């Protein structure tokens, strides 16, 4: 039997991997830990915008978490991320308006770092782990994970097999396809039937003034629609590039930067598919590729004023005097009705109308709706225990594995996998 090179290999340096690494290194400093990432610095939500939510259930995947379990671990997440929690005001006003419409406004403890400051945070975290003896292989891609008769390990491009006693796989949302391939090769049962499909809404702060009182307001609407990832201050809509298509997302810079008077947020509908549908991910990919095809290789955008009148937006309509700000992400002006499935669009638009009653102004004709914003993090492996173990020696955590939906939940899921490894180690002695 081959001797393992490391005690623990962690695939991914995002919040789930970091959560596991910090807990392992703190509780058992003698462990040899290797973290591997194909990027030079961890990507995803920790790098881009770095918005953190410290209130259950935000960021915690249903079915994997109880309130008690989340609230037990959130202080540990806060210990390492050291958030500057934002203040809120006037929530009762918005909450009363929402309740009259059957809408819920959640009160969430939040912090925001900003895309321009996130690298400083990440570097502090990585430096602290290096000080504790954790090793890194950056810009190295893991192509496979295994757990055979000789134990677990990973296959690294241009390097080959590296073995460890335990492997934690935490590649984030963009690792969704990679995780599926690994699970299929390892014979791990999983469910992939849930996907979030929606739009990114961009408007002026004057048309969405709630952001002055509550940085990232969390509204839950009927028909499984919710607001997600609100940005203001110096906010912009950005592209996320995948193989063969692009999605939209939102970022904001820190408060150190001059504001641009824009706000954006996602409006997402959660779709639970039933048999015989094979894959929510594949549905999402088809929808994204359709939108990009209609948009000439780019996502689509449409002004609310044009949508209400039943006509497509054109580049010219984005320059008339009624439309008082240019798009921060100038993709293809068009007609969302050609790309968004009708049922999804009906539910999104119904939520928009309710939101305009709660926060009057958001349906100003100048407001832009970008499509597609799709969250493909719906893998649900058949976990063997509460520590997210999928085989004798392999754990899968984070957004890509469906254990979380955000930075704090991902970090907490990494802690739970680390607790499982340490408890097994104690049982052996």
UniProtKB/TrEMBL annotation:
<protein>
    <submittedName>
        <fullName>NAD(P)/FAD-dependent oxidoreductase</fullName>
    </submittedName>
</protein>
<dbReference type="Pfam" id="PF13454">
    <property type="entry name" value="NAD_binding_9"/>
</dbReference>
<dbReference type="InterPro" id="IPR038732">
    <property type="entry name" value="HpyO/CreE_NAD-binding"/>
</dbReference>
<feature type="domain" description="FAD-dependent urate hydroxylase HpyO/Asp monooxygenase CreE-like FAD/NAD(P)-binding">
    <location>
        <begin position="9"/>
        <end position="172"/>
    </location>
</feature>
<dbReference type="InterPro" id="IPR028348">
    <property type="entry name" value="FAD-binding_protein"/>
</dbReference>
<dbReference type="InterPro" id="IPR036188">
    <property type="entry name" value="FAD/NAD-bd_sf"/>
</dbReference>
């Amino acid at each position: 039997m081959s001797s393992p090179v490391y005690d623990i290999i962690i695939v991914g340096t995002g919040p789930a991997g970091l959560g596991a690494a910090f807990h392992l290194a703190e509780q058992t400093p003698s462990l040899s830990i290797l973290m591997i990432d194909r990027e030079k610095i961890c990507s995803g939500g920790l790098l881009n915008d770095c918005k953190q939510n410290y209130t259950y259930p935000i960021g915690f995947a249903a079915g994997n978490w109880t309130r008690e379990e989340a609230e037990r671990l959130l202080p540990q997440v806060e210990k390492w991320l050291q958030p500057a929690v934002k203040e809120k005001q006037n929530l009762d006003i918005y909450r009363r308006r929402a309740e009259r419409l059957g809408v819920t406004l959640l009160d969430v403890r939040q912090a925001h770092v900003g895309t321009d400051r996130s690298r400083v945070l990440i570097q502090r975290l990585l430096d602290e782990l290096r000080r504790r003896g954790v090793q890194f292989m950056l810009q190295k891609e893991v192509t496979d994970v295994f757990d055979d008769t000789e134990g677990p390990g990973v296959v690294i491009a241009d390097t080959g097999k590296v073995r460890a006693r335990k492997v934690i796989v935490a590649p984030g949302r963009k690792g969704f396809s990679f995780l599926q391939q690994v699970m299929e090769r390892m014979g791990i049962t999983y469910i992939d039937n849930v996907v979030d499909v929606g739009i990114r809404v961009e408007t002026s702060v004057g048309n969405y003034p709630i952001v002055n009182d509550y940085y990232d307001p969390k509204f839950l609407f009927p028909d499984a629609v919710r607001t997600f990832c609100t940005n203001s201050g110096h906010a912009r809509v950005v592209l996320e590039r995948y193989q063969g298509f692009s999605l939209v997302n939102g970022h904001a810079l820190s408060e150190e930067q001059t504001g641009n008077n824009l706000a954006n947020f996602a409006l997402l509908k959660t779709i639970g598919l039933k048999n015989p549908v094979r894959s929510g991910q594949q549905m999402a990919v088809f929808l994204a590729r359709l939108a990009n095809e209609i948009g000439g290789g780019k996502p689509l955008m449409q002004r609310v004023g044009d949508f209400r009148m039943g006509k497509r937006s054109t580049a010219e309509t984005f320059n008339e005097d009624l439309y008082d700000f240019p798009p921060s992400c100038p993709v293809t002006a068009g007609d969302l009705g050609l790309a968004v499935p009708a049922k999804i669009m009906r539910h999104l638009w119904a939520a928009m109308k309710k939101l305009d009653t709660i926060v009057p102004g958001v349906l100003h004709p100048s407001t832009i709706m970008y499509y597609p914003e799709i969250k493909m993090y719906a893998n649900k492996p058949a976990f063997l225990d509460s520590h997210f173990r999928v085989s004798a020696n392999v754990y899968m955590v984070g957004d890509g594995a469906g254990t979380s939906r955000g930075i704090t939940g991902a970090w907490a899921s990494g802690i739970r996998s680390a607790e499982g490894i340490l408890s097994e180690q104690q049982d052996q002695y």
